[in-house]
Input
Amino acid sequence: MPHPKLIAMIPARMGSKRIPQKNIRYIDGKPLIAHAIELAVNSMCFESVWVNSEDTVLGEIAVALGAEFHKRPPELATDAATNREFTEEFLQKHECDYVVMVNTTSPTLRLGSLRNFCELVRQGQYDTILTTVGEQAETFYEYKPLNFSLKEKVNSQLLTPVEKVVWAMTAWRRETFLEMQAKGQNPIFGGKLTTFNVPKDESCDLDTEEDWKIADGILRSRSLHLVPQYYSHATKANPNDLGSTPGSFSDYVDYVKNGLDKMLVLDSAGKQVDRDAGIREWACLTLDVYRKNGKVFFAGNGASATMAEHMSADLYKNGNIQTVSCAETAYLTAIGNDLDFAEIFAFKIKKSYTEDDLLITISSSGNSENIVRAIEEAKAKNGRVVTLSGFKYSNKSLQHGDLNFFVPSLTYGAVEVAHSGILHCWLDQYMLMFNAYNATIK
Output
């Protein structure tokens, strides 16, 4: 078989129970199913890439991302349906030498691993190839040791690894699969079988919320491009300075872009929102403030304060909205001295904020006490709040606004540059809505 024909099959159901609607749930900035589709399409390994599903929404996503849609029968879309059954139905309708199942439940799989897997498939030596991860640790089955002796302790690096099947990718020779299925034999592990080992960080198999959190953490860590660093008593480095500061302008541009690419938008319930939809919703909130003759309050410290003043001036000048930047020198020094610096923003909100207004907070850490107090005061007055934050997902600002924009970069410069871009994008979108609205009422 000099040039075997490979096609990709991506199985996906909408009715998953353990992680409801997981295939359209966002992870790392896009629906789960998009990771598998883009991986298969970008690998250039297949003559065709198919999403195998009962649901037309998943089919629409497939076509939009360059794949094709195989609509499986409803009876093969239940919890009781097995991959043996839906794979047979698929292979009956699609000619190929091998089908490679790429699972949506393995979003941490890398492009290189898929290409290497397909290279093994093309050799044509096996009927079935399973994806495994090696565990080089003492392993028991039914209380009996599998790969070690109870008589002695051996260093783990000397143990024979056990292999756990993770189903990230599976290849079946079409002819063998259909022949065994017709005979009532199990083709899932059929014919001449081998395994393909993937790194542990690519072996996530999403069955539970715990699995989801692990995969989400892996994808987030990849986006940060961190280098190893170590505690030094001599330098006592700032824990936020993680050694990730880029060493050249090109690297810096990539680092900032990466933060923007991985930006998350969450609503007040902590649910992830599409980023474009989040910007539009923010612009709509701002237009509502304009229509109700309300005010937009800005709050930020340091460099974020200059951004707050900048956007306050632009919105006031171009968007015809009353704005409050809370940054006047006399006011700041008076409230900070007479009351508490933590009250500098909350005090003005307490005095003059109404439910027709909007508060925009800008904070790299998201943890500044005066920012958190401002958010709390605005929410106490049934106000609307948009937060911009960075650094750590656990920061105090995130998820407390009506819309929350989070940049997962770990240096002030990268977060601040990203925040500036996000703010200008929002203002530009608002101005488009503002001009269109005023054109309709004239």
Q: What stands out?
A: Residues 234-243 have pLDDT under 50 and may be disordered.
